[in-house]
Write a structure and sequence with these properties.
This protein has 172 residues and is mostly helical. The chain has one domain. It is built from 8 helices and no strands. Helix 5 packs parallel to helix 8 (152-171). The longest helix is centred in the C-terminal third of the chain and has 20 residues, at 152-171.
């Protein structure tokens, strides 16, 4: 039992409360899309338990987005792709926010060189989603999604550069 406690403490040592709030909020939005009434925001396809589990795993992984951004992004891309292959690809915040926030975290908290790993994961994850989305149509909404998703890494990287620049100025 002490080994489990030690592993649990190590896993949460670098976790900030804000990360828990973000992950929990994203998880709740995903679960509301799956189990809540249809309010016209999301299009859910496939079995609810599969979607709920996929959304939950992907969302809760965001807890470690600062400590291990590339691993979290790879985990979310893998879990989401498996969910899409098994259940089909739904549209909504539950399928968009976890990979978007994880891709942002790669830009914000990882070294720029890891973009060589992150971009293929992003392209592959998006391709699996689009291929398994029964409502996919090449057009305005898909292109808008791709553009918004593609801004995640540069936005994170811009904030990273700004923070580093501010530190340099403070140290002078």
């Amino acid at each position: 039992m002490s080994a489990i406690k030690a592993a649990f403490r190590r896993a949460f040592r670098s976790v900030d409360r804000f990360d828990i709030v973000i992950a929990t909020s994203v998880a709740l939005m995903g679960q509301l899309e799956v189990w809540g009434p249809d309010v016209g925001i999301a299009v859910i396809v496939g079995p609810a338990p599969v979607n709920a589990a996929g959304y939950l795993l992907a969302s809760l992984a965001l807890i470690w987005r600062r400590a291990a951004p590339v691993a979290v992004f790879a985990f979310i891309a893998t879990v989401s792709s498996l969910q899409y292959v098994v259940a089909g690809a739904s549209q909504g915040f539950g399928s968009f926010l976890p990979p978007f926030l994880a891709f942002y975290a790669v830009g914000r908290y990882a070294q720029p060189q890891v973009l060589m790993v992150a971009v293929p994961l992003a392209v592959l994850g998006t391709a699996v989603h689009e291929l398994r989305d029964p409502n996919f149509e090449f057009g305005g909404t898909a292109i808008t999604y791709w553009i918004v998703f593609a801004t995640a890494w540069p936005l994170g990287y811009a904030f990273r550069r700004r923070e580093l620049h501010a530190r340099v100025l403070t140290d002078r």
